Predict the 3D structure of the following.
Amino acid sequence: MPEHSQPLTIFIVDDETLARERLKRMLADMTGEVVGEADNGEKAISGIRQIQPDLVLLDIRMPGIDGLQVAADISKMKPAPAIVFCTAYDEYAIEAFKLNASSYLLKPARKEDLEAAIRSASQLSQAQITQLQASQQQSEPQLSFTAQTWQGLERIKLDDIFYFRADQKYVTVVHKQGETLTDHTLKDIQARFPEQLFRAHRNSLVNILHIHALNRDKQSHYQLELSNGSLVDVSRREVSDAKRLLSRL
């Protein structure tokens, strides 16, 4: 899967100044953008909740609130940031991954390992797509969209829909069986399925289940690549949300 075209926003948490500075030096040559840092758990939780970064580089052993407690707290955020633990101790790895850590790096982290961890945190794996599909089907197995067409009503399973595209007065539903015109508005459709659909552009809604990647073309325009090969434009104002979505699913 392609990497994000814009850098992830990164928050660094470590009680050692030298450790934070070393991470920032390595990140300067990568795609990540450091947007904040903290030297203890209490400041970390406050800063992360305020800034809402895409990714947190998190030490474990710190005075007061440790990194595991920080991870448990920020994992409740919606959306929650990806977490990469960066610590000198290997005995916390199992507990760290129970907190849905993306990666676990041992200090001193090598540049190539840090870069791989950031890349991993920014990608949406096929396994995660499958898991999301399964959970959606279990909770709402009959979830569907009923299109009001000129011929009457047409019921389309939501899982079969790739995206909705607005064109003047009508909306086109692009799905596995073809395309269907409906007189529903994108606003009404999104209001009905807020958890399943992402507003990529003022003219389009994308089914999250079918998002495969976020790409950038030669003209620096961003597009979502869907599971059927379709490319849907992403407006500049929605790029950050698209990037965050891909790293959370």
User: Anything to note?
Assistant: The domain at 9-121 is CATH 3.40.50.2300 (Rossmann fold). The helical segments are 17-27, 41-51, 67-74, 93-98, 111-121, 126-139, 186-192, 239-248. The longest strand covers residues 161-167.
